[in-house]
Amino acid sequence: MIELDHFINGQRVKGESGRFGNVYNPATGEVQAKAPFASPDEVDAAVAGALAAQPAWAAVNPQRRARVMIEFVRLLKRDMDKLAAAISSEHGKTLPDARGDVQRGLEVVEFCIGAPHLLKGEYTDSAGPGIDMYSMRQPVGVAAGITPFNFPAMIPMWKFAPALTCGNAFILKPSERDPSCPLLLAELLLEAGLPEGLLQVVNGDKVAVDAILDHPSVSAVGFVGSTPIASYIYSRGCANGKRVACFGGAKNHMVIMPDADLDQAVDALVGSGYGAAGERCMAVSVAVPVGEKTADALIQKLAPKVENLKVGPFTAGEDLDYGPLVTGAARDRVLSLVNSGLEAGAELVVDGRDFSLQGYESGFFVGPHLFDRVTRDMEIYKTEIFGPVLSSVRAGSYEEALGLAMDHEYGNGAAIFTRDGDTARDFANRINIGMVGINVPIPVPLAYYTFGGWKKSIFGDLNQHGPDAFRFYTKTKTVTSRWPSGIKEGAILNFAAME
Asked: Is domain 2-248+457-479 annotated with CATH 3.40.605.10?
């Protein structure tokens, strides 16, 4: 049994609390490692180390900080396969998908290399007689990130790369379900030249989370996960005077218009709905065909492709479509929601409940499922399933289809497939969703734009990565400067306006 560590002050250290969480091999269901759960005292020690290291790092000029990220990118490329294997072995992703996890994080690190430009302030000379004004962007101090299991490389890098490049220290509390990759990332950053203590990795559960949220020296907290936990972290962090950005659940719709290229739409639905076993916050889980003719044709083309999806362990090769879910509890929850859909009267076109893989019967695999004639009152429509389940909700018109996505409590992503530019433009302008795809099924913005949803998919005012990350991890200081010349005139006691 492997006992994992924390990463504190530049080295791996054993947990001291005596509490651990199981890390499973999702393909076999076996416990392959145990992750230490930090106590408040261990979190305090990590924050103390970060607090001690941060002032010297903030004094390093942005260009030199960016050079650490340049070297980090090189090391990520060098160790891509090693990082992907660590992700696949604990999460269950296929190797190509795991490499994509690393790559999308790497792209944000590349964006952070532009820190010298992104951290520039503003300047106004002669704002008044002999008066100049300028602003500076300065680090918040010690920031923290609480990241989910479904992207154990990408989302930690979305958090710590901009935070560190801005001159902060960072406390990372990764998911306890797949913590090995974040530990490897911390070691690579040290190799890239990051001084010790600036990136601390503390494994744990709610005890560690609360210790971070309550710690007076942690100034900013970012989170990605479910909406109930996002709401909790946002409320508790804000109550403690911290800057907080939390990203929650999703129920992403894809509208298929009668004029859409159905073959293209079907391929998009299969890839976005079943990739990574549906364990993506940007997965399309609701197809909305407009008109009965469109719906019938869509299901006719979609069903055989879903039935033929290849499911298996990442060790089986590169041509797998998806692997197991991350835990047995996740598998059981998905199957329970599938049964609720049947009980509510939805038509199960592709039934994956009896899926079993020889030699991996105890693994956390779930076969692909496809529902048709789902309605908005059903639990499988309202709830984020986070599994390989796609629901078709038939709409009689474009307006009805648009309303389905707009009325849902989540607002992470939405897409429309159409050949009509006017319809696409109207959809993009009217939809109350944060990320929109036009003939693009998973509209995750590139690193130089920002990532974030609307409604109950976000708690806070700023998005992830892109320019918003540099706003989140810095504070603005505005300086009004006067260097008098000539005869000094005495004090001015009233609040004088600038002339």
From this structure: yes
